[in-house]
Amino acid sequence: MPGYKVDWHNMMNAAARTSLSKSTLSVLILGVGLLVAALIWTGSSVVATRSMTTVDGTVVRFDHGNRSLRSYQPVIAFMTPGGRREELAAGTSLTQPAYDIGQAVRIYYDPTRPERPAIIDDFGQRWFPIAVLALLGCVFSGVGVLFYLGDRPRISSLATPSYAERKRKRNRQNLMVSLIPIVVGAAFLLCAAKSFMHEREMIRGFNRTKGHVVSVLENEQPYKPRSFLYSAVVVFKTNTGQQITFAQGSSSSHNDLREGEEVDVLYDEGTPERAVIDSFWEHWGLTAILFAIGLPFFAIGVFFVSTIEFARRPRKRTS
Predict the structure, then answer these.
(1) E strands along 15-149, which residues?
(2) Do 113 and 210 fall into the same domain?
(3) Are residues 129 and 187 in the same domain?
(4) Residue 259 has pLDDT above 70, yes or no
(5) pLDDT of 174-185, one tens digit each?
(6) How many domains does the structure of the chain reveal?
(7) What confidence tens digit (pLDDT) does each residue in 185-200 have?
(8) Half-sphere exposure at residue 117, Cβ-oriented, CA atoms within 13 angstroms
(9) Beta strands in 158-227, from DSSP E residues, in sequence order
(10) Which of 21, 51, 177, 216 lies 20 to 30 angstroms, CA to CA, from 238?
(11) What whole-number distance in Å separates Cα of residue 247 and Cα of residue 237?
């Protein structure tokens, strides 16, 4: 229309002020996505046990099943409601036995499908991964909410914020972003501390003996054709004369152990399947890896926090 001039600059500024920043959207989407994934995982776990029967049982042995010697599945003995004794392998499979022989556990099993593995009703095996996912979702969602609260003045106000206001907002956002590597690093460091305490208790409480390497397992790495990891298979005898065969807990592309070589072994007297090669890397390798990952994350977060300069609000002069 004649005489009518569109102020495109003000319109673009108004549109920009009515939208969230990219960092706010990214953190909120990540946090909500993790929470949704944890919720879906929880729902699927609950649905999986809805048609199953709950019963108390006892771990009687460990089975490798169709897996390699590096995989331990607990076998649980229990009494059915009809008074019949049954044994069923659990779906849990770890490189080291997670339970003791004779340990009482509560399981879910399907009496109409005896081939279906039992589900051990244990927080560490069933709910801990979901809890970690939910915790990360809460952290990222909380940071996203704080970002959103920082964006609200910009969204609600048509006035262009001053340089000091923009700087304060940017510093608050940088502080929140810096908290993410601090939280991640602290989590890895706590896991490293837990691994350290576990290994120290193992060294103090396990029995010592000698074993012999009888073979070396060769496992192809996933997504890396013709690339292999090697684990030594060790045989030893307990103080009672029981012969135990176990696989080395850690795998590497260059295993120095050879068939027939004698090695030091630590084993649990109550559950001799819980055995490890008594070497520095077998004890402290995982601790060192967790520490090496967590320390840089934590240090980077602390460094960025220390570089943030918070602008002080001008004090009102008193007459």
Answers:
(1) 53-63, 73-79, 85-89, 104-109, 119-120
(2) no
(3) no
(4) yes
(5) 777 777 788 889
(6) 2
(7) 998 999 999 989 988 9
(8) 13
(9) 207-220
(10) 216
(11) 15
